[in-house]
Specification:
alpha+beta, 5 strands, five-stranded mixed β-sheet, 12% strand, globular
Length: 281
């Protein structure tokens, strides 16, 4: 289990984080980020699957909450393209930013599809939160509840819980919608390849690509998580057809680095395309 590091350990960890950030700047990498009781565990690797990194990070952190997927850099911001956006804990990004800053490697972090964070947005929020806590700690006699029963009956607690739940729901919905827009944009970019696949003389390629495209269009409206998986299968199928000469080469429609990495990760699922079509068709 991850323990609170000493100053010497913080320095060593900071040097390692700086190397990881430098690698991400050069090329997209697989990552796993797990929240521990006292610290965050962040692993990256170009070759190791993020599921392997996830198991190692969980063991070190002694926890099971976090995210895994592909990390890339957009200017000065680290962008995390996670496997399952719905499972990302709300405090993760804030904890990650603090983790990096404490180790001398300050950096802004965001999830793919979300708006780029402002430089001091989190710092301002932290300061405001700390100020509120200090003000609440200094209560006058009139502000102090008269009895335990009065405190239990105070409707402000229930109202605060309701507001917190509403904020969490809105945040989750915003992430889902951001991923939906990202997937739709990827699908639009693939249109030249989809057209060529529909005109392919290979009946197998034609059937798989057309079927997956139809399923994606249906699922992206109602089930973003499933649409994300179908997009991976669709990209893998198209590029496998290109590699085997069934679709032909098209330099004008090359995928980006993140798509290439995601296809490699989902290549093992290609064998299940026909079963997926039968079950969801």
């Amino acid at each position: 289990m991850a323990k609170k590091p000493t100053p010497t350990e913080l320095k060593q960890q900071g040097e390692e984080l700086s190397k990881q950030i430098a690698e991400v700047r050069k090329k997209d990498v697989n990552f796993a980020m797990v929240m521990g009781k006292d610290a965050l565990v962040f692993h990256t690797d170009r070759k190791k699957n993020c599921d392997v990194l996830w198991r190692t990070a969980k063991k070190e952190a002694g926890g099971a909450k976090g995210a895994k997927g592909i990390a890339s850099m957009s200017g000065k911001v680290m962008v995390l393209d996670v496997d399952d956006p719905d499972s990302v804990p709300g405090p993760l990004l804030k904890m990650a930013k603090k983790h990096f800053a404490e180790r001398g490697a300050p950096i802004r972090i965001m999830l793919k599809g979300e708006e780029e964070p402002a430089d001091d947005a989190d710092d301002t929020a932290d300061a405001a939160d700390e100020k509120t806590k200090k003000a609440a700690a200094v209560q006058t006699p009139e502000q102090t509840p008269k009895s335990a029963s009065d405190a239990q009956d105070d409707p402000s607690d229930e109202q605060a819980k309701t507001q917190k739940n509403e904020i969490a729901d809105a945040d989750r919905d915003a992430r889902i919608e951001a991923l939906r827009k990202s997937l739709i944009q990827d699908f639009k970019t693939m249109q030249p390849d989809l057209k060529r696949a529909s005109q392919s003389q290979d009946a197998g390629v034609n059937k798989k690509v057309t079927g997956l495209a139809r399923i994606f269009i249906d699922q992206v409206k109602t089930d973003v998580k499933k649409a994300h998986s179908v997009m991976g299968l669709l990209q893998t199928t198209i590029n496998s057809a290109k590699d085997s000469g069934q679709l032909g080469a098209d330099d004008a429609a090359k995928p980006n680095t993140a798509s290439i990495t995601r296809r490699k990760k989902l290549a093992a699922l290609e064998k299940g395309v026909d079963k997926l079509l039968e079950r969801l068709g």
